[in-house]
Specification:
This protein has helices spanning about 10-30, 30-40, 80-95, 115-125, and strands at about 60, 75-80. The protein has about 120 residues and is mainly alpha-helical.
Length: about 120
Amino acid sequence: MVIKKTVIDNAKLDQIVADAQRNAATRDAGYRERALKMYPWVCGRCAREFTRVNLRELTVHHRNHNHDYNPEDGSNWELLCIYCHDNEHSRYTDNDGRKASGESTQNVATGNPFADLKAMMGKKS
């Protein structure tokens, strides 16, 4: 039986380690990684808890829907599971980009067509 010795290419190994460290630094600079370090791994709507096994189902939602606004304190982020996140965005698009609120922004009719109905009916008698 012949034992084959493998030669370790240190230059290639150093390059792999450097690439892995650079990729990790790039990921850490992203808002998702920062939010996952900042907040507990719990959905902000349904309170579902996450572990490393299912963490890919936890998303970062931008509260004001502006993905370019990423403050250092994370005040524009909340962690939502993929189902609650889809629900939030469908509610946003159903309102044509307007925030859902109790107030109506459309003009409301102020005239009442039946205002003098009793008087009109009295004239016919």
